[in-house]
Amino acid sequence: MSIANKVAIVTGASQGIGAGLVKAFRDRGYRVIANSRSIKPSNDPDILTVAGDVADRAVAERIVREGLAKFGRIDTLVNNAGIFMLKPFTAFTAEDYAAQIGVNLTGFFNITQAAVAEMEKQGSGHVVTISTSLVDHPIDGVPSVLTSLTKGGLNAATKSLAIEYAKRGIRANAVSPGIIKTPMHAPEKHAALAGLAPVRRIGEVDDVVQAVLYLESAGFVTGEILHVDGGSSAGH
């Protein structure tokens, strides 16, 4: 199939990694369905924006339904929407827990189930989920139990999806970033954060984008958790 006919869904698409992914897919000729809670309409006729929280089942189903109505197919889903909270474990509230479970896990379940159902009809597709290297390499001073609880579940789900759907032409992979220069991290903290990675810098949005694009083009790769963390997952 021509890339010009391919369609990608990107969640959490209004800023940071998500916005970078939307641009990268469009630069490759993909048509894009871009979602976030506050995303604005696009002037690009090949970008469909759908506002709402993927933790809401109705929103996830609307993303896929409206995408199919406009573009006719779903080839790639990038599960980028997520919540990251830095708190001591005992400081997390029930509301914090519900929020992270809602977006990180329920959101993944809602949109992935709807998208994969369409990919099955086509006999092809690719799901990429953005995780974090903190899952398998926690860092002292970066308390992130709820993030690891949820993103670790996504890593496991990625491998299960890859095996379940391998014979049906659908691949599933994850990108596991370290600390990336996004609005999540204040500029005055960049220098200190850079010291946490063996390469002594924090990642750029494009580092993650290029990893997703690699997985998108790597047809023999499925079930992979690709670390983009400046060596953090290898050790210190």
From TrEMBL:
Keyword Ribosomal protein set for record: no
Keyword Oxidoreductase belongs to the record: yes
Signal peptide per UniProt: none
UniProt superkingdom: Bacteria
Keyword vocabulary terms for this entry: Oxidoreductase
Protein family per UniProt: Belongs to the short-chain dehydrogenases/reductases (SDR) family.
Name of the molecule in the record: NAD(P)-dependent dehydrogenase (Short-subunit alcohol dehydrogenase family)
Native organism: Agrilutibacter niabensis
